[in-house]
Design a protein that fits this description.
12 helices; binds alpha-L-arabinofuranose; globular; 558 residues; single chain; ten-stranded mixed β-sheet; alpha/beta; eight-stranded parallel beta barrel
Length: 558
């Protein structure tokens, strides 16, 4: 029985409700010959995978903070000191390494002092996003437009502590001084009782007498745009001024500079050239060079307009499905090209890439509540995008030190959707959970050989790779993650490990009958991964990857 996946096109245009996932067995019944091969070359190590590439991003934007994370202590929604319990519990399952906050563009409008002291006395401020054209018409006023500052530094870092994540604080370069930045570091990191700001920290609500020991500090956000419209040369000067001196309090401060938007190599070149001119020793002070890349333009090349190029999150057809993956897949060349430019000036590659915003960005309309600006549904297609992106980071584990999917909850490529007491895990959450064995493991080279996907793009034949992924080794356990992007065809692959034999194998598969399948509050478990049997024969194995699927194989080696 062949599943008529093209039917999703017609169905998708008619309904946007949750779709029930099919059992993998539907595909397992279709006989097919081995058509693909995955080779894992153990001797070719890339680097240890920094767990921080599995990082998150939470901005004061729409429903991310107010409603998503922060429900308040008096809420009927179960909470831990005001923080949504269900979110904390779910996050623990994926061991979040780092969470970036408070923005995004919001960061360059934020005064961290507003979020300190007793909550009742904190000022209400106009949010950066208050006038965004994307707001649904019926969006009421509330803290998402006029921020109550009830969620400030202590509340955020408490959230991090509850989930086991490190905080990554993005400082305001556009509107605040280097002194204000310096004092935020002092507020977070000066030892208990040592300074007036340490006292403020201890006497704020959600108090912390002890230092937070925050390591990651972003110096501005998108400084080429909302963060100040700087030139890269101007930004280099600003960055140097902000980071020239700061008290360390025994904490290894890791500065992340505001890097490029997509393929803007001029931004990278301008910053690195000007910084090198001043002294290449300055590269020792930069931990990460940011990179932002969203998969948003699904117009099949018809426009580059930021609004006109976007499409719906749930109602999409075959070309739009592949276009999203193609747009996301550009991440690989972006990493390689920026890395090359960085290396022209920082020859030892002291500075690594921090892809501190990535994900799918659709047109408004599928948000679960009108207060969720830039909120969108997240389907199986987004799970594929997440998997192929994480695989890219892993294949470039020597270059990428951090990744932060945008955003954590109720916004863009979210892992969670919530409204009041309703809460769900998106398919992207499941990808993050499936990929956890890669964290801290050694990435090794892989070679994927599979028939390419052919599809019609504006009446021209277009193609996309047929099978992709990455592998990492931890002791004798090899984890291989594999994406089959083909909408209709399974891929049957022979899996060969160069340098070892496979002793036993386990498989976990995320696939659905329709690529726009997604979880809803009424049907929150429509899309979930399942375990499958994987049989090993004489040290190698065959595996059948269902159409539009993400698979994790765990291979015990001898
Ligand atoms: O993630 C939404 C926005 O996208 C961020 O605020 C900004 O940095 C980027 O343009």
């Amino acid at each position: 029985m062949k599943v008529k996946r093209r039917e999703f096109l017609r169905n998708a245009m008619m309904v946007s409700a949750g779709v029930v996932a099919a059992r993998a067995g539907a595909f397992a019944q279709t006989p097919s010959a081995t058509d693909s091969r995955i080779e894992i070359i153990l001797a070719e190590e890339i680097a240890t995978i920094n767990p921080d590439i599995y990082g998150h991003f939470a901005e004061h934007l729409g429903g991310v903070v107010y409603d998503g994370i922060w429900v308040g202590e008096k809420s009927r929604v179960p909470n831990i000191g005001g923080i949504r319990t269900a979110l904390v519990d779910a996050l623990k399952r994926i061991r979040p390494p780092v969470i970036r906050w408070p923005g995004g563009c919001f960061a360059d409008s934020y005064d961290w002092r507003d979020g300190t002291g007793p909550r009742g006395r904190r000022p209400r401020r106009t949010n950066f996003w208050a006038d965004a054209p994307e707001w649904p018409k019926n969006a009421p006023n509330g803290p998402w437009k006029y921020d109550t500052n009830h969620f400030g530094t202590n509340e955020f870092l408490r959230f991090c502590q509850l989930t086991g994540a490190q905080g990554y604080l993005a400082a305001n370069l556009r509107g605040m001084t280097a002194q204000n930045f310096f004092e935020w570091i002092e507020y977070c990191n000066s030892p208990a009782g040592s300074t007036t700001l340490a006292e403020l920290r201890a006497n704020s609500e959600t108090p912390s007498r002890e230092s937070f020991k925050v390591q990651f500090w972003g110096v501005g956000n998108e400084s080429w745009g909302c963060g100040g419209n700087f030139t890269p040369e101007e930004y280099s000067a600003e960055f140097r001024r902000f980071t020239a001196a700061a008290p360390r309090y025994g904490v290894n401060l890791k500065y992340i500079a505001s890097g490029a938007n997509g393929e803007d190599l001029n931004w990278t070149r301008g910053f690195f050239a000007r910084t090198a001119e001043k002294g290449s020793g300055l590269f020792n002070q930069i931990y990460g060079w940011g990179l932002h890349h969203y998969a948003w333009n699904l117009s099949l090349g018809k426009t580059t307009n930021w609004f006109a190029g976007k499409r719906d999150a749930v109602k999409f057809d075959e070309p739009e499905y592949y276009e999203l993956l193609r747009e996301g897949d550009r991440m690989e060349e972006l990493i390689e090209r920026h890395w090359t430019v960085m290396g022209e000036y920082d020859r030892q590659h002291r500075v690594k890439l921090a892809v501190d915003e990535w994900g799918a960005w659709y047109s408004p309309g599928s948000e679960v509540h009108p207060t969720h600006l830039l909120g969108q549904q997240s389907t199986m297609r987004d799970a594929l995008l997440a998997a192929l992106t994480l695989d890219i980071f892993q294949r470039h584990a020597d270059k990428v030190a951090m990744g932060n999917v945008a955003q954590l909850i109720n916004c863009l490529h979210a892992l969670f959707l919530a409204y009041e007491d309703k809460f769900l895990l998106t398919p992207t959450f499941h990808v993050f959970e499936m990929f956890t064995p890669h964290m801290g493991a050694k990435a090794v080279r892989t070679v994927f050989s599979a028939p390419q996907v052919q599809y019609n793009r504006n009446n021209q034949q277009a193609h996309f790779w047929g099978l992709g992924g990455s592998a990492s080794i931890n002791d004798k356990m090899l984890t291989v993650t594999v994406t089959n992007p083909h909408l209709e065809e399974p891929r049957e692959a022979e899996i060969v490990v160069r340098g070892a034999r496979i002793n036993s194998a386990r498989a976990r598969v995320l696939s659905t009958s329709e690529p726009n399948a997604h979880n809803t509050f009424d049907n929150p478990r429509a899309v979930e991964p399942r375990d499958e049997t994987a049989t090993v024969n004489a040290g190698t194995m065959l595996f059948r990857f269902p159409p539009a699927s993400v698979t994790r194989l765990q291979l015990a080696l001898v």
